[in-house]
From TrEMBL:
InterPro entries: FAD/NAD-bd_sf, FAD/NAD-binding_dom, NDH-2, NDH2-like_C. Keywords: FAD, Flavoprotein, NAD, Oxidoreductase, Transit peptide. The keyword Translocase does not apply. This is NADH:ubiquinone reductase (non-electrogenic). Belongs to the NADH dehydrogenase family. It holds the Pfam family NDH2_C. Its EC number is 1.6.5.9. It is an enzyme of class 1 (oxidoreductase). It comes from Agrobacterium albertimagni AOL15. GO terms for molecular function: NADH dehydrogenase (quinone) (non-electrogenic) activity. It catalyses: a quinone + NADH + H(+) = a quinol + NAD(+). Residues 354-407 form the External alternative NADH-ubiquinone oxidoreductase-like C-terminal domain. PANTHER family: EXTERNAL NADH-UBIQUINONE OXIDOREDUCTASE 1, MITOCHONDRIAL-RELATED, NADH DEHYDROGENASE.
Length: 427
């Protein structure tokens, strides 16, 4: 076993990022003879797959986020630090935070996730937020709900049309979920709660640069999703790359789409973990790792989840999905425990695909299990069960289940709040 830098004391594992991967890794190391430090720039773990429900007023932010300290606080060997990692010195084996603090490690696990990729057009972000944080979800909810209020009072037909138009950019799972949810929320609200607006005035546009939506799913499932979305009034524009995004709308090759709410869901890039280590990143800015999730040439450094470029047995890159991050986190936590306490070598990671899914609307989802597929109402039910099960603790599972059952039967959205002091950063 390699000699540890703090000979005589307990081995130190530093985990950067308490998302799906980092949290799973920390849980696997809980209550062991290893000192674990978990560093995250946020104080909470965020369940990103349900962020679109916060953005469309179905759930409140607290329903899908949990203080990291609360989740890990019961284990005496885990120390949680809120701080932003800005660099790593692999020779000195330290992680540096933005405030200048340096945290030493014997083993380092990088689980810093990814962010939306604006492909060099960073100035579009303020007009078209992605869905990566509570702040962005609230920003979208704010714009969406405010636009309905303004449309109810507007006397100008063109302005009313702009206010009732939302453009979702990117036909991947996030774009599809958002477009479906905005369309269903908008129609229901207008029908029930507004007096001067009509449901048919609502215009939700889903813009996709490629030839079909949900391109990572089999074609029949992607066609099913497209038919469902069109049925609920979503205007799908395929082969339509976005040329510009402004506060007033979106420029595409066929013209300008005036819109009040623009959502970005067109691709992600990894956190700058590769830059911190001075390593050339792979596709999507991901940090290449070996089959045991270690970073080649750097003793004791590992990367998992969205930020890592890990290959499967056939040499294919594992997708940036919660289930990959979670499985890698649990695997690495257990492997590090055996390696540090018993001297065992870290084995190769093997991903077990539990099925790729996307929700399309109130009663429709798709599942791709590789050898078989599922679509429609049953897939939606399975999607709901899986997502409730994956929530971080029993309290969240119960709260979200009750709200979903209530919402499913009444169609009401409980979180339709416009915060009058919310600062929309684009205006
Ligand atoms: C809207 C949306 C919907 C999704 N839906 C699904 C789905 O249905 N199914 C699915 O499998 N996957 C889904 N995903 C993908 C899934 O959320 C990610 O694959 C997963 O979160 C990756 O886990 P991770 O641990 O690598 O990163 P994350 O869960 O993103 O965690 C990264 C953590 O690192 C912290 N961090 C980042 N940089 C720093 C730094 N410099 N210093 C300190 N801390 C830092 C962050 O604050 C965060 O807590 C979705 C993603 C989004 C955005």
């Amino acid at each position: 076993m390699e000699e540890l830098s703090n000979v005589g004391s307990r081995p130190r594992v530093v985990i950067v990022g308490a998302g799906f991967g980092g949290l799973a890794c920390a849980k696997a190391l809980a209550d062991t003879e290893v000192d674990v430090t978990v560093i995250d720039r946020r104080n909470h773990n965020l369940f990103q797959p349900l962020l679109y429900q916060v953005a469309t007023a179905a759930l409140s932010p607290a329903d899908i986020s949990e203080p990291i300290r609360r989740t890990l606080g019961r284990s005496d060997n885990i120390h949680v630090l809120m701080g932003e990692v800005v660099s790593i010195d692999p020779n000195a084996r330290t992680v540096s935070l933005a405030d200048g603090a340096a945290i030493p490690y014997d083993r380092l696990v990088l689980a810093t996730g990814s962010k939306y990729n604006y492909f060099g057009n960073e100035d579009w972000q303020k007009h078209a937020p992605g869905l990566k944080s509570i702040h962005e979800a609230r920003q979208i909810r704010h714009r969406l709900l405010l636009a309905f209020e303004q449309a109810e009072r507007s006397q100008d037909e063109a302005e009313q049309r702009r206010l009732l138009t939302s453009v979702v950019i990117g036909g991947g799972p996030t774009g599809v979920e958002m477009a479906g949810a905005i369309s269903e929320l908008g129609r229901f609200m207008i029908e029930r709660d507004f007096r001067t607006l009509r449901p048919e005035q609502l215009h939700v546009v889903l813009v996709e640069a490629g030839p079909r939506i949900l391109a990572t799913f089999p074609e029949n499932l992607s066609n099913y999703a497209a038919d469902y979305l069109r049925n609920i009034g979503v205007d799908i524009r395929l082969n339509t790359p976005v040329e510009d995004v402004t506060a007033e709308g979106v420029q595409v090759k066929d013209g300008f789409l005036p819109a009040s709410c623009i959502v970005w869901g067109a691709g992600v890039k990894a956190s700058p973990a590769a830059d911190w280590l001075g390593i050339s990143p792979g596709p999507g800015g991901r940090l290449p790792v070996a089959r045991d999730l270690s970073v080649d040439g750097l003793e004791g450094v590992y990367a998992i989840g969205d930020t890592a470029l890990a290959l499967d047995e056939d040499g294919e890159a594992l997708p940036a999905l919660a289930q990959v991050a979670k499985q890698q986190g649990t695997f690495l936590g257990k492997a590090l425990k055996s390696s540090l306490l018993k001297g065992a070598a870290v084995p190769n990671f093997r991903f077990h695909n539990r099925g790729n899914t996307a929700v399309i609307g109130r009663n429709a989802a798709i599942f791709d299990f590789g050898t078989w597929q599922l679509k429609g109402r049953f897939a939606w039910l399975l999607w709901a069960i899986v997502h409730v099960y994956l929530l971080v603790n029993f309290e969240k599972r119960l709260l979200v289940s009750v709200q979903w059952i209530w919402r499913y039967t009444t169609r009401q959205r409980g979180a339709r709040l416009i915060d009058e002091n919310f600062i929309a950063p684009d205006k």
